[in-house]
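Q: I have 172 residues here and want to know how they pack in 3D. Can you give me a structure?
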Amino acid sequence: MILTAGFHGDPIVSKFHGMTISSVSSLCVEPEPLLQFNLQVPSATSDLLHQFNSFAIHIMPPTIDSIRIARAFAQGTRIHRDSQGNLVHTKPFMSLAKDDWKLQDINDKVQIPIISHAERVFLCEKKDLFQVNNHELWVAQVNDILINEPKKSGGLLYFDRHFHNIGTKLEN
């Protein structure tokens, strides 16, 4: 899945942040739908999550476009040195085309970049947070679900250094 962080201000693509997250799971449905995930820190995405508390979690279909986008966001937590030797965060949105994303207004202050190719998008806000070593464990309240594709594919799966789709239903 891909997480994109909310922001406030002018929509400058170089300031958008997000990352792939593989640790997403359902925590509960009642009395409110909650998801949980973790991410490594330090991270520019984590910084925006703390600042605005709003984010989107995208379920990507098993397509070539999804693989291209997932690879761009897989570098989301890394910090590297630029040509002048300054430490900078990677900027996954800079490698995407304009039609790969759109902005979603959350309220009068926060917008979230939404990946256009996503099958489902959970619009979330922070419910709780736990620091464990160099990771943060997030509990997210799901406030809305955007459905871009009515047919469910099962999502994009990554294991053994390759992308896969989930196979057919097994009968017993």
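Q: Anything worth noting?
A: The two ends are 29 Å apart (CA to CA). The chain has two helices and 13 strands.
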